[in-house]
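As a next step, we paired sequence with structure tokens, yielding the entry below.
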Amino acid sequence: MRMKPKILCISFSDIRADSRVLRQLAVLSEFGEVTTLSYGDKPAGSSEHLEIDSSLPSLPQTIPGVLALGLHQYKSVVLKAPAVREAAKLAADRHFDLIVANEARALPVAHFLSQQIPGGAPVWGDLHEWAPEERVHVRSWRLLIKPFMTYVCRTYLPQTQAITAVNESIAQLYREQFGCTVEVVRNAGAYQDLAPSSLKEGAIRLAHSGAAVPGRNLEGMIQAVLELGSQYTLDLYLVRARDGGKYWDHLKELARSSDQIVFHDAVPPLELSATLNQYDLGIFSLPPLTTNHKFMLPNKFFDFVQARLGLVFSPSPETSRLIQQYGLGVITEDFSPGALANAIKSLSVERIRELKNNAHLAAQALSSDEDEAVERKVISGLLAPLG
């Protein structure tokens, strides 16, 4: 009897709260025994878990590391970030038939571990978003990390046997700038067997889900709701930043004067759409401060559809195309709080009911079915030499 393939899934995140990697892990587990290497406790679908200390940064943020980045000595630090060093140590002397690197920062250690295996192991790089400009709105990232991540992509992508990204716009950037073949795996979740909830008389219930971290324009969304009448409420389901609660407290202070805005801790990804189903509109406005912001197609877009909510989103090529194609909602005129408030106010009760029904009709097409098919094709191809 042939042994099941052994697969290593690397992610510098807590996979239990990482919707994309959880979905990936479910597909990987169809093909073999999956060892996860990440922050946090063992996630569902993992056969074995190697836990990276969550206090360790995944970029070379030590004094020697920052100095090397400043001197453009990138080769000397690709494996020197504290979390990367620990990952390499935890997975040393193990055999794997396939290694999955989630995000570009995991590529160096994935290839390092592959090279330690006799005959090597193929590497699948699920790059998620556009790695070189993840946080270029932050000056230190723009000056130090952007050229480093560009080096990582230029060095390791040509050696990577399969590459995926979140949407066609991002995939095309990788093709154009690094000459690699990239397939698209969206952030879509599994189809949820839900129906649109009824509207509550005299109330329009808004919802937003995501991370409570700076740069996501949560302040703008709070301000927009404060400009609306008392019949509008906003419920925020947020993953707290690892900053001791500072940003969470900052957001709550902004909303302190109003009982229209309620903060909730994040719910598990598999429960999110069912939790959001009680609301009417999913909202998101994100100024295009980075390339990833410009070409966003986030988890929350698909979560809102599965929850059968109407959508109010700021302009973006990827989200706007789907909103228009399926009649899911309205697109704001610009990225200001006022534009978001105006877009929300423009929707009558009858129109919101229609948008919720359109989300219901589009839920199957905008589920993860086609994305899982791409993943299965990638994995099958990489494991084919095993017979």
